[in-house]
Design brief:
Layout: H1 6-11, H2 13-20, H3 29-34, H4 40-46, H5 49-54, H6 59-64, H7 66-78, H8 82-94, H9 100-115, H10 127-136, H11 146-166, H12 168-181
Helix pairs in contact: 8-9, 8-11
Length: about 180
């Protein structure tokens, strides 16, 4: 259906999210292990219960841990909202850009992919933030996405992060690390 009506896909983001509840996509520990950066068994042997428990201390601790990031990404995929994390990560990578020549092209790619109205992976930001970011694009700098990135970070921290901490992915992961100790 999507190839025949690509314009409908972007307009019906809310409907897609609501229909996601009916999907057979699971929210399980196994989904998380499938996307671990290393081989799952080796990675989980290195993950301590203490580390996984610390992810609940703060959202930034979760984002700074590679397995925490992988688990959070797996969770967001079950909610069909991984574009928020992908945008935040793209901004983090963008801030490391040292080449002036690459700055404008990277900024344009991020804007077209995440910020522009009806972008393929459009993030949920308010009109003022979108317009400020559009103006910042006239002279891209390392800080041109700061406000949009901050809004998306705040949205994930207040909305997705608490649900992640209650998710089967996270609770199963904690159980798995604790079982290894017994």
């Amino acid at each position: 259906l999507t190839p025949l009506l690509p314009h409908i896909d972007h307009r019906n983001r809310g409907m897609r999210t609501r229909l996601g509840c009916l999907s057979h996509k699971s929210d399980s520990y196994n989904d998380f292990t499938a996307i671990l950066p290393d081989k799952p068994n080796r990675a989980l042997k290195r993950l301590s219960t203490e580390e996984a428990t610390r992810w609940a201390d703060s959202f930034d601790i979760l984002l700074s841990h590679k397995y925490g990031l992988a688990a959070f990404r797996a969770f967001l995929k079950t909610e069909f909202s991984e574009e928020n994390l992908e945008f935040w990560l793209a901004c983090e990578d963008f801030k490391k850009t040292r080449s002036a020549a690459k700055l404008a092209s990277k900024a344009q790619r991020i804007f077209e992919e995440f910020i522009d109205v009806q972008a393929p992976r459009e993030v949920n930001i308010d009109f003022q933030t979108r317009e400020l970011t559009r103006r910042n694009m006239q002279e891209p700098s390392l800080s041109c996405f700061d406000q949009a990135q901050g809004k998306v970070h705040s949205l994930m921290e207040k909305d997705s992060y608490p649900r992640f901490l209650r998710s089967k992915i996270y609770t199963d992961l904690l159980s798995q690390t604790q079982r290894r100790l017994s």
